[in-house]
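question for whoever is on the cluster today: can someone run the full assembly for these? two chains, 630 residues total. i dont have access anymore since they changed the login thing
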Amino acid sequence: MTPIVETHDLTRRYGSNLALDHLNLAIPQGAIFGFIGPNGAGKTTTMRILTTLLPPTSGEARIAGVSVTRDARAVRRMVGFMPDFFGVYDNMKSWEYLDFFGRSYGIPAQRRQQLIGELLELVDLGHKRNEPAMSLSRGMKQRLSLARTMMHDPRLLILDEPASGLDPRARIELRELLKELRAMGKTIMISSHILTELAEMCTHIGIIERGKLLAAGEVQEILRTMRPHRIVEIRVVSGAARAEEALRAHPDVLELRRESARAESDGEEAPLNDETGPHTLLADFAGDEYALGELLAMLIAAGVRISHFAEQSGDLEDIFLHVTKGIV
Amino acid sequence: MPELNPILIKDLRSRMRGARAYILLTIYLLILAGVTLLLYAALAGETVNDLNAGRRIGQALFFTIATVALIEVCLITPVLTSGSIAGEKERQTYDLLVASLLTPWQIVWGKLVSALAFALILIIAIVPVMSLAFLFGGVGLTEVLIAIAGLIATAVLYAAIGLFWSAMLQSSLGATSFAIGTVIVLLLGMPFLIVIASLILGSRAPSDLLDSVWFIYLSRFVAALHPFIALGSTASQLSNGGDAFFEVVRTGTGNVVAPSPWVLYTALSLIFTTVLLAASVRSIQSAQSARDGRKRPSRTKE
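^ ran it for u. tokens below:
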């Protein structure tokens, strides 16, 4: 995919403080890009440069090939920005809020009226059209803010901590909305601290710390790269002792753990007893997918009855903790 | 048909919605009407046997109403604009405006016109009260038109002062304090300096210096920086049968023709307004680089 966002050696200083250090980033078109990093890592600085709100000290940032410093106006047409706060106006109804930003982006009156209705429906705020924006709940304000970013039909949405401060229901609604926006062909760059949510919805991630990009790419690729082995979860209905013995002897199994509490009560050293089962074993497996298939076949051939055999899905939090040093 | 400035529409919607605008207008007119009534009561008692009573009452009413209106415009308009751009920064909507396709000029112009639209309502609202003076005589249409032109020029300049501080500072409170401070310096500091200068020059300056053309123009220029002095001098000139647009200054060496103080005041107001608006636009343009090294609190997390 062609990158819609490209940065080359993007650097930003605040006095003597280096906020971004030669950041090289590429976000493919149509991706949901999760931008992860501890507080003060440089996420918001990057986003503000990409939205033309902050000039870089050095380096280059481009949106769809257009430089953010040379043609800020063209970039603004392509980008919808939602900061980590919701700026409201007194005495302004929801539709008026959207109408104002529609006018600010030069959308013709007729199209604007149509768009306001469509966008309010999209973010499920059609019934709040004439309500003062100030009176909306936090989740609703976030959705209205998202509708605002969509007013000029941007190709790229940059959302800074959109889920911050939202209750679980509002988060789920926001996540579903973002998926819908992606289906509409939008590229979404999103920063968040809630990594489990990002893992669920993002196609790509970038991990940043102290202004340096530590890792970036497709989520599954990053998980594979950062964790050199697979964790295979095997639930054994019968033949647990045989399974354990075979797995320990297998050259690609680096480590084997028992998961259930009952297994622990049986004692780590004692062989597993089928009567106290079924048991779950976790194997750190260094082989590829073919080797994994062979492992399963070997267990079945050994007479082990298995009800569940699956590679554990990657945990972004583990990767995040592994990659970052927590020194910001 | 081209659409109106989005900022203007938004601010007018916010400003005129609710009771605040109407309460302010009512208080403004009540003060004017109260002062007019008190003045009439005082003058009517004193001039019972005076044949020119009507003319004197008319002139007194007109000048008092114009003065009270000018004081109110001087104080209200900078307050109307001082919170405009700083308020966007406080509400955290400033970035949203800057990141949109609005130009800095559109932002400044929209803010100025929305405040002036309200100031214009205040000025138009005094016209009926001011017209009472016509019933008594002693005041011509020229005086009324010059007073309205002076009020409008003052409203525009003082609104630009408020807007300038609003663009420069981060908080509405700071911008309002600086705007009111500037107004106080202009209205009180300027007459103080003029009095001091006249005291010094009156006793020591040679007469050829006081009669020189450049000194006459300089003194008119300084006087034209103050709305009350400029408009008061014009009123005095008109009541002595002078021209509405030119002033003839008699000196020992001959006559010097200078523009009427209100003309000079209006022209200077226009120039200063342009400079202040340009500075406000520039402040918004350079807002991005100005953030260098002083990130706002909401950004400190990154």
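summary bc i know u wont read the tokens: The CA atoms of residues 237 and 278 of chain A lie 5 Å apart. The interface with chain B takes residues 14-15, 19, 39-45, 48, 51-55, 73, 76-77, 79, 81, 83-92, 96, 100-101, 103-106, 109, 148, 152 of chain A (CB under 8 Å).
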